[in-house]
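Apologies for my clumsy wording, but could you write out the amino acids of a protein and the tokens describing how it folds?
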Amino acid sequence: MKNQYDCLNDTVTDFSLYDETPLSEEEIRKMSKIINKPKNLKTRIIVVTAAAVFAITTAAAASQGCFDKIIKTITTGHNYFIQMDPAAPHSLPDELKGKLFDADGNALEAISDSDLNNLYDENGKLLSADELRAMYEELDGVSLKSDKDIPIKNYDTLDDAQEDAAFDIKAPVYIPDGYSFDRAYTYTEENGDTSGYYMTLEYTDGSDGTITIFERLINDETAFISSGDGEIRETVINGMTAVITSGTNIDFETSDSVSVGIHTHGNISEDEMIRMAESVE
């Protein structure tokens, strides 16, 4: 499966008026159950981020106390969004203990996200992100492929994309000035088939500005957990709970069971992103 993150509206909300509620035991129990639930390859890809290699993408990490690193969690109903403490150490899976070292040659039992660019092997070689993924993949048997490694099917128009989608594609009516539809795409199985559960829309400004809208039909197969150290805030889009991440991403679910996530890169304000989300049809 693919990614996510979506949009909001012109409404300005003073989030300081709301108290942040600590995680309850029930919330932790539910998340632990979801994380430990077997996932297929595509579902895992959704949550593979830098920290995810050592944090919540595997049952091993879930069983080693990663939940005390959580600052906040928000659910849109079907999906979970987790803000992690980037300074908090994560216990390494047993398979990696004795395999990773600091610059002074000391074997590490735990690392923080800030350590990810300063990890060495037993011979003092600085390990790249790809080498770390390869090491963990080899030791744990978990595929940490990125989305770019998966075949995709491109569509030049939304009408063409709609023919392969198992849901009504949610195209925003409002698009920031200078941006236009570039393409839609979905991921394919090895045999070239598509599930119809996923569709991604891309809008560009002709330079380096991009708006990517990840959409998926809500069902048990497409549920995801997104974790990172970006600030998450809860708001409401068209009557539905929405999550803003770092002021550049927004995720929500529609009343007809579609998960929408809008990711922005470039000169797009949070207000414009929210306006896009509110205009999704």
Remarks:
- The CA atoms of residues 190 and 201 lie 22 Å apart.
